[in-house]
Specification:
The protein is mainly alpha-helical. It has helices at residues 21-36, 57-67, 95-107, 118-130, 149-157, 206-216, 232-242, 276-282, 286-297, 301-307, 320-325, 333-345, 349-363, 365-373, 375-383, 402-406, 411-417, 421-426, 431-444, 451-465, 471-476, 485-497, 505-522, 524-527, and strands at residues 8-11, 40-43, 75-76, 82-83, 111-114, 163-166, 175-180, 184-189, 196-198, 221-225, 248-252, 256-259, 262-265, 467-468, 483-484. It has a 3-stranded antiparallel beta sheet. A two-stranded parallel sheet has the order 1-2. It binds glutamic acid.
Length: 528
């Protein structure tokens, strides 16, 4: 038996062959809530709508959950078998179960066969629209609702196809009140539609299937997409008709994005970032995507993370109340990148190297080759500023950024990047001055200098050449100097890296090593 307060929760994706980031989001939230309560999280595959099976679709869902550490207690497994005692967890394999329960509803008169054809239904729909009344199958429009047994038998005799409909006793003038776990107390009009329970081909609709399954599988709390909110009255009605206790429902707003001046739901068709394959291709660390989604769900996650930089994100307590407060979950890549940079900054260098290499092997084979051939050097590069803890470098958000951050350390790439040395340096000082800086620097630089000695030598160099040794001093009395130390280091940085910004220059020099350093600096005359 489960402990008091334990929640049994599930996700119920359809196997479409597309793994939506929203499915991961819902799965992650649901799994955490279930496990925080010492309950159970399971996966159910809702494949009753599928015209045909999409190869590998279930595998894609399970692999994605596995990759993002959404821990599944019960459901279909990658091995092909199932885990758990409440299966089958795939709806197409539960046909017999649904039919058993439909039979019982038929016997009680709570359901009836409907022989209406699609054409007849469409015709009724047009008439309803034209006369501006509610559309659907209800009241006098429910033509098969009161067929006599004889009429039913006759229709069956001539082989008419049929579905099974629910006989609704609801009155839309009345309202049904319920508590949504996220939205709080709500009420909606009662349902008067005689919804289809079983389609003519023998498979159930979502309405009926989820009622049967969530009852038999012991679901206590349902987290699902907002698009189901308006169906709550039907679902409560069905639970009641079955004589079962309904689970608590909570409806999640869909992930949105800013599009021009407005925000809209992520579109599977238009937005590459709707698919989780996008995050793989870009090389976002799984931990970063996880933290980002947790932050979308509960915006206080970020604060918690700051206060607990070394704790596992599993220790964060997700709450449904705060989920309800999120004003629509808005996908924001600045935020994701920010979170990801912090995640990468906190990773040990071997993990950074390993993950980046694994990504590169698939998405940037040339980079992977270099990383493997020059493993030690690459790790030294990636380790720059990594020991500093708080002030760790934050230049890598995703593994596709790695190439840009390591390329200039490799002579071949540095050469092909062909930076505009002259132009870049001109922004800091005259060529003649720059030669003097380089010459003096090379005279005194020793690879074995610790950072403090290195800095002192640069300061001496500044003084000797008429530059202020710090910016404050320079600002106080600009006329007394040719410039300031930052211009001096800029010259060295540009010549060594081809860029105006880089991680800590002392560390960059240490990693480049004496040979490369001399080679790059002594070429200055021909470059500027
Ligand atoms: N298959 C349904 C969907 O994808 C599941 C909804 C639910 O979780 O109940 O919308």
């Amino acid at each position: 038996a489960l402990p008091e307060g334990a929640m049994v929760m599930r996700v119920a994706p359809s196997p479409t062959g597309f793994m939506h980031i929203g499915t991961l989001y819902t799965g992650m939230i649901t799994e955490r809530l279930a496990h925080q309560s010492k309950g159970v999280f399971f996966v159910r595959i809702e494949d009753t709508d599928q015209k045909r099976e999409v190869e590998g679709a279930v595998e894609l869902i399970l692999k994605s959950f596995e990759k993002y550490q959404v821990v599944v207690d019960e459901g279909p497994a990658l091995s092909g078998d199932e885990k758990g005692n409440y299966g089958p967890y795939t709806q197409s394999r539960r046909e017999g179960i649904y039919k058993t329960f439909v039979r019982s509803l038929l016997e009680q008169g709570k359901a009836y066969p409907c022989f209406c054809t699609t054409e007849e239904l469409n015709e009724a729909h047009s008439i309803q629209e034209a006369s501006k009344i509610s559309t659907g199958y209800y009241g006098t429009w429910a033509r098969c609702r009161n067929l006599s047994d004889e009429q039913v038998l006759q229709a069956l005799d001539v082989g008419k196809t049929f579905g099974i409909r629910f006989r609704s006793e609801g009155n839309p003038e009345k309202r049904v009140a319920f508590v949504d776990m996220l939205k709080g107390e709500r009420d909606l009009p009662e349902n008067n539609q005689d919804v289809i329970l079983l389609k003519s081909e023998g498979l159930p609709t979502y309405h009926f299937a989820h009622v049967v399954d969530d009852h038999l599988m012991g679901t206590t709390h349902v987290t699902r997409g907002d698009e189901w909110f308006s169906s709550v009255p039907v679902h409560l009605q069905l639970f009641e008709a079955m004589g079962w206790k309904a689970p608590q429902y909570g409806h999640l707003v869909p992930l949105q994005k800013i599009d021009g001046a407005s925000r809209r739901k992520l579109s599977k068709r238009k937005d590459p970032e709707a698919s989780i394959s996008f995050y793989d291709e870009q090389g976002y660390p799984t931990a970063a995507v996880t933290e980002y989604l947790l932050n979308l769900a509960n915006s206080d996650f970020e604060e918690w993370r700051k206060a607990n930089p070394d704790k596992s994100d599993r220790e964060f307590m997700l709450t449904l109340e705060k989920l309800g407060n999120t004003n629509g979950a808005l996908l924001n890549f600045d935020k994701l990148n920010d979170i990801s940079k912090t995640v990468v900054a906190h990773m040990p260098v071997d993990d950074v190297y390993g993950s980046a290499l694994a990504w590169a092997k698939i998405h940037d084979v040339e980079l992977a080759g270099v990383m493997e051939k020059e493993a030690t050097y690459t790790k030294q590069i990636l380790n720059i500023e990594r020991q500093n803890g708080v002030s760790a470098r934050k230049d890598i958000a995703k593994w596709s950024d790695v190439r840009h951050e390591v390329s200039y350390f490799f002579d071949e790439w540095f050469a092909t990047e062909a930076p505009d040395f002259r132009g870049l340096i001109a922004a800091s000082m005259e060529p003649a001055q720059a030669y003097a800086v380089v010459e003096k620097f090379l005279e005194n630089y020793r690879a074995e200098d610790v950072k403090e000695d290195w800095l002192n030598k640069i300061r001496e160099l500044c003084t000797a050449l008429g530059y202020a040794t710090n910016t404050k001093e320079f600002k106080k009395n600009p006329e007394a100097f040719k410039g300031s130390i930052s211009q001096v280091t800029a010259v060295l940085r540009i010549l060594l890296t081809g860029r105006t910004s880089s991680p800590d220059l002392y560390e960059v020099m240490q990693v480049l090593g004496m040979n490369r350093l001399r080679q790059r600096l002594s070429g200055a005359k021909s470059l500027i």
